[in-house]
Amino acid sequence: MAGAQQAATDVQEGAKSAMSYIPYILGGIVVLAIVILVPLYFLGYLTPKKANVNAPATIGQNIAPFKSGPSVEAFQTTIDSADETLINVQPLSIKDVGFQGPYPNGVFDPDAATAGALKAGFRFLTLQIDFMDSDKDSTRFAAPMVPTLLIRSPSGALLSTNSGSIAAVAKAIANAGFNPSTPNSTRPIVLYLHINRTPVSAVSDPNGYLAFLSKIAKDLAPLAPYHVGLTPMGNFTRQKMEGALLTTPLKSLEGQVIIMSNADTTLFRSKSSSIQQYNPSEDLDFWVNMRVFLDSEEDVYGITQLADPSSPPSAVIVNMDRILAFSESKQSAFAAKSKQRYVIAMGSRTSNPTPETIDLLINTLGVNSVPVDIFTETTDSILAITDQYANKAFRPKPLSLQNIV
Does residue 60 form part of some domain? Predict the structure, then answer.
């Protein structure tokens, strides 16, 4: 019994002795943590990462991130940001906003594809507008004669497995375009309404033509709070100041949507009793800030028309293959002319130009927008294209190609 009591006493004393070392052990752990963690903190490994709203993020849902690098502003060394203007920048441009791909027989997913393009840093968005000629699976396609988004072959064959809603794209732009979580969220967005077909012509049925265009205007309703309209600089509606818009500092247009279109919307201005009148919100002419014309009678792009020779256009669309075939002297002449206008170069609907082609277009010919697809090709292929823009949402033109006032 005495032995047992002695053993118990020894255990208690041992426990007390062990307990006495705990403060020293804890102190050692704290010191060790400080020695290890403090250097890591100052080296940046433990510092919480802040979102860089200027650098491109990921290309949609299925594409890997852009290469990491400096922010957009860090690259802008050839032009002062205060003087950065629409005519002097080359934005990352999407060919079919709302199309998730893959080309040619992919699907439209306006929410995911539009948000994906914006998150990837693209701020020039192309809506290629068409219509269905007849009924076709109403769960996947729009009703006949209604403005919608479609992929067609050069011969007019329907390729996409559904149609895309213009209104849904507009809503997605409104929701994500200027959200602080989206890269470049303060930068303006250029929305190009490229109309491939209308059910009737303005000549044969002016009211039918206006009704079709009015439906497009109604679909743009979510963008009303962001639309470039009446500003301290002037009234940019109805293309009244499209020339001035080219040279307006982009900083003055932050958080706004600039709308371009290839449609002739002037009929909305008619006061004839035979022409239906529309409220501004349903009047596409009111929405369009800048009209896009053909550069040459050799080009054919939807309902785009040639400009009046006596009135040089502020924006043109050109056939990529045609201008790539220019001789050196014609290249120089084209680049010089492009200092005075915004140039969109369109190539194949279902494939991308090569990085080498883009290099020639933006660095030699002075093209502003080269719309591409980011959902079909491999990540490496897309990165090779975006590398031409040095990861900038708005790349300044080479200095020799800029419009310098």
Answer: no
